[in-house]
Design a protein that fits this description.
The complex is a heterodimer of chains A (89) and B (503). With 89 residues, chain A is mainly beta. In chain A, a hairpin with a 5-residue loop joins β1 and β2. Chain A starts with a strand and ends in a 12-residue tail after the last strand. The C terminus of chain A is likely disordered. In chain B, α7 packs antiparallel against α8 and α14 runs antiparallel to α15. In chain B, strands 1-2 form a two-stranded antiparallel sheet. The longest helix of chain B has 30 residues. With 503 residues, chain B is mostly helical. Helix content of chain B is 65%, strand content 2%. Classes of the chains: A mainly beta (89), B mainly alpha (503). Chains A and B meet through β1, β2 and α1 of A and α17, α19 and α22 of B.
């Protein structure tokens, strides 16, 4: 099922509508958001994702992360590798 | 015997009487005359400084009309524009489409005041205001009509507000509320006191000066002519504000807070784009932020102080947005330029250096994006507009209907809120606050994304641009300089073919 979300890439100028699928991993959703902003911002490797400000584990699927239609999903730069204990399930 | 002006004018200008068969609130219903609904004595001292008779008005306007016509005939419309920078032409297309039909909506707002305002002097001044706004509708429609021969994009002078283009939707969302449906009190505060007194000097003084330097004398003369009307009818705002402040200062503050923010978003796009990006560098005298500091921060704050109003509660957010908002929206518009009817430009190295000096706080975040866009142009070549164009649907604010470009690049200020009737996204806290003050007024409106999700508009970008936004390939926005380059290359190719005798 399609889950449209408002996506924001840190370092970009605008919010876009990313059409995620409920079975997709957050890494796949992040790739869509990087692609959407790619004419302005080059993708970066180290990043975290946040749902309405709450950190997420990027290995989760959209459903597992509890993402609902029209949520705010952010990609923010990360300078270090995250430990599991640092992110909320 | 002919009466002298002094014999009749004051009586005619400010003639009210006590009704014997109906009550005041039947003649001036609160829903049509506006809040606070006060006894007529509260308005008795209402006055405006111009005290113009209709005869004087007609005579003065006639001279102004002659002046505009003479300037256009002397300068020669299309011929004048042929040598002007393509960026400025784009700014002209943006302005031309944004103004005339909004001005026509202002005719309605003024006419409502001409009937339902609570005092005769105000009603008479509003009637002249309505005639002013009709003139401001007709002049740009007339002048830009000739330019359609030069560029079919000028057809959007009339078309924009009738279209489902996202800029048209945002423009109608603003002008319908501000001009078409507001009661005379809200209209006077919002339009005359905030929009006209607070902001339009950006156009009439700032942009007019840039037009002259850019060689666009027609635009310069047009806005100068309009400015003299605005200077008169905007004077309706202050005396209305003074009465509202005396009886309901909280409502006065609310109206200012609401309309200052909505006006700011409008001008930061229409004027901000033109001043900082579309005006050729050699024609610029100051940047948009400097014009705002001179014409809004200083003068408008003085107006607020004079009537005892506070700065809007989001003043800090507003000050911060001076460095960010129009740059963010311009980048968003550039990378979605096929969704609008005017071209945009990549600021060149000298322009970026100028912008870096003018915006030392924010420009370091924008510079890498313009470098990135330049690299993509180099990789794609001059014929491939789509190499630097977004394909993903844009998010729009549920209040202002503009792109989600609030805050900074590091932290976008958009907020998602959940209500009983669904979720809404706002570009900023002020937009969310405005929405929540009058949810019933705004709730039924659907932004472009909601229309797509409801199946009322196509999700495919090309179908959206062509079928829903009403744009065609010869009109939709491109990179202005690349378009010019392609035109020149095409002309060169035609010349070469002709020399070779090829068809």
């Amino acid at each position: 099922m399609m889950v449209p979300v408002y996506g924001f890439l840190q370092g970009d100028v605008m919010g876009v509508v990313v059409l995620a699928q409920d079975h997709e991993t957050l890494t796949e959703v992040a790739a869509k958001l990087f692609q959407a902003a790619s004419m302005r911002v080059a993708p970066y490797a180290n990043y975290e994702m946040r749902l309405n400000g709450r950190p997420l584990q990027i290995e989760m699927t959209v459903t597992e992360a509890g993402i609902l239609p029209l949520d705010r999903l952010d990609i923010v730069r990360s300078t270090r590798r995250k430990r599991d204990s640092e992110v909320m399930q | 015997m002919t009466l002298s002006r002094e014999d009749w004018f004051e009586l005619a200008r400010d003639l009210d009487w006590e009704f014997s068969y109906v009550s005041d609130d039947r003649v001036f219903p609160p829903t049509l005359s506006g809040q606070p609904w006060l006894p007529r004595e509260a308005w008795e001292k209402w006055d405006e400084p111009y005290h113009t008779t209709f005869s004087e008005y007609a005579s003065t306007q006639h001279k102004k009309e002659e002046s505009v016509v003479a300037a256009c005939e002397a300068i020669g419309g299309i011929e004048q524009l042929k040598g002007i920078d393509p960026g400025w032409i784009s700014g002209l297309k943006l302005h031309s489409a944004s103004l005339p039909l909004a001005e026509f909506a202002a005719v309605i707002g003024n006419l409502r005041a001409a009937r339902f305002a609570r005092v005769s002097a105000w009603r008479n001044a509003a009637l002249l205001g309505a005639l002013d706004e009709l003139r401001h509708t007709q002049i740009p429609l007339r002048l830009m009509h000739d330019l359609i021969k030069l560029d079919p994009g000028f057809d959007w002078t009339h078309k924009l507000m009738h279209s489902n283009n996202w800029v048209g939707i945002a423009g109608r969302h603003l002008s319908d509320e501000l001009l078409l449906m507001s009661d005379p009190i809200e209209f006077a505060v919002a339009t005359h006191f905030v929009f006209e007194t607070g902001f339009t000097n950006l156009q009439f003084v700032g942009l007019s000066a840039l037009a002259k330097r850019a060689g666009d004398t027609v635009f310069e003369k047009m806005v100068q002519s309009i400015q003299t009307d605005e200077a008169r009818h905007s004077q309706i705002g202050l005396p209305v504000m003074e009465v509202v402040m005396k009886h309901d200062p909280a409502y006065a503050q609310y109206l200012v807070d609401k309309w200052f923010w909505r006006s700011w978003l409008f001008f930061s796009i229409v004027t901000g784009f033109t001043m900082d990006y579309l005006t050729p560098l050699q024609s610029r005298t100051a940047c948009f932020k400097e014009f705002v500091e001179e014409w809004i921060l200083e003068q408008f704050q003085r107006s607020l102080d004079e009537v005892g109003l506070k700065r809007p509660w989001y003043w800090h957010t507003f000050l911060s947005s001076l460095d960010h908002y129009h740059h963010m929206t311009y980048l968003a518009a550039y990378t979605h330029r096929a969704t609008v009817w005017f071209d945009l430009v990549v600021p060149g190295k000298e322009e970026r250096s100028w912008l870096a000096k003018k915006y030392p706080i924010s420009w370091p975040t924008f510079e890498p994006m313009w470098e990135h866009i330049e690299q993509r142009w180099k990789a794609a070549g001059p014929h491939l507009e789509w190499g630097t164009h977004g394909l993903t649907p844009i998010g729009f604010c549920s209040l202002c209907q503009l792109v989600l470009c609030g805050g900074t690049c590091e932290h976008n200020s958009a907020v998602v809120k959940t209500y009983a009737d669904g979720r809404r996204v706002f570009c900023s806290e002020p937009c969310a606050w405005i929405y929540e003050q009058e949810q019933d007024r705004y709730a039924a409106h659907e932004d472009v994304v909601k229309r797509i999700l409801a199946g009322k508009a196509p999700a495919n970008l090309m179908e959206l641009v062509r079928g829903y936004f009403g744009l065609t390939k010869n009109v939709w926005g491109q990179d202005a300089h690349q378009r010019q380059r392609r035109t020149e290359l095409g002309a060169d190719k035609l010349r070469a073919n002709k020399l070779r005798g090829a068809p």
